Amino acid sequence: MGIREVARRAGVSVATVSRTVNGVRSVSPAIAAKVWSAVHAVGYVPNTQARALVSGRSRILGLIVSDITNPFYPELIQGFEQFAVQAGYDVLLGATNYDPAIMATTVRRMIERKVEGVAVMTSEIEPSLMEQLTGRRIPLVFVDIGPPGLRIGNIQVNYEAGVRQAVQHLYRLGHRRLAFIGGPSDLKSAQLRRDAFVRCTSAPEWMAARPLLLAGDHKLEGGFEAVQRLLSAPVRPTAVFCSNDLTAMGVLRGLDVEGLRAPRDLSVVGFDDIHMAEYTIPPLTTVRLPRLDLARQAFQSLMAGLEETSAPGSGLTPIETSLIVRGSTARVEPAAS
């Protein structure tokens, strides 16, 4: 059933039906009620592509993430889509898997689909790709990496606060020999977490034993493989801080394979607080980066950009992090201190 049948049943013109379904305020409530009654009666579904051609608006927002297999991102996507759908937008998703070629294809696809705004929730985007989007005056929001500018929002995660809480927590438990397993070297968020850890362990109370810094990949396998390096270190650490929860979960599995267990043999801390962190054995102590807050701020920033309410340099939104203490950390045994 098409729009003409809706118009016939409602006793109005096709133009009135179009104005009603597009939310034009000039349609009276009484006429709108008749039109919507006819719409529901015939099961009419508006052609969104045709509406976009007429209105010049796609009602689509782009969302770019990195690794879709990392549970952090589906939780973020779910929140962003929730806010978008409530406001009448669809979401075009792009997952780059840290591949510059896929990122370039994703940006091109979003431009072709005429997205009205793009949330870049990953940090491996090239400046030239940013320019392709900003040059078309598409509102953008970035996490940690975006340039200041009109219709550009920047979300800045306060990694330092959560990392400091975690380091202080381990110190209070008697740990003095720490290790850190990082993420991909070209990932800005991983660099910021590592830098925060290094700063926090540069305090005078840590001068007696410098932390062991290991490279990682933010994947389960990276954490699993790092266990051998932790156990074979000249001075074995008593606690390890991981750059994300997947790495920490890999460490827990690696310890199990070696007949060891957290926190008895090694206290383990993650970062992100993904949903499954509460259900590992033992439950994972981790730094919470609230995905729903991140999704909300990203969406609201794009809406502000669409309304052109963002002033140059003013679109900086902080996201706080905090430590969640669970069972994977414990007081260090006297013999290991």
Automatic annotation (TrEMBL):
Residues 1-55 form the HTH lacI-type domain. The keyword Transcription regulation applies. Pfam families: LacI (PF00356), Peripla_BP_3 (PF13377). The keyword Transferase does not apply. GO terms for molecular function: DNA-binding transcription factor activity; transcription cis-regulatory region binding. It comes from Paludibaculum fermentans. InterPro entries: HTH_LacI, LacI/GalR-like_sensor, Lambda_DNA-bd_dom_sf, Peripla_BP_I. CDD domains: HTH_LacI, PBP1_LacI_sugar_binding-like. Keywords: DNA-binding, Repressor, Transcription, Transcription regulation. This is LacI family DNA-binding transcriptional regulator.
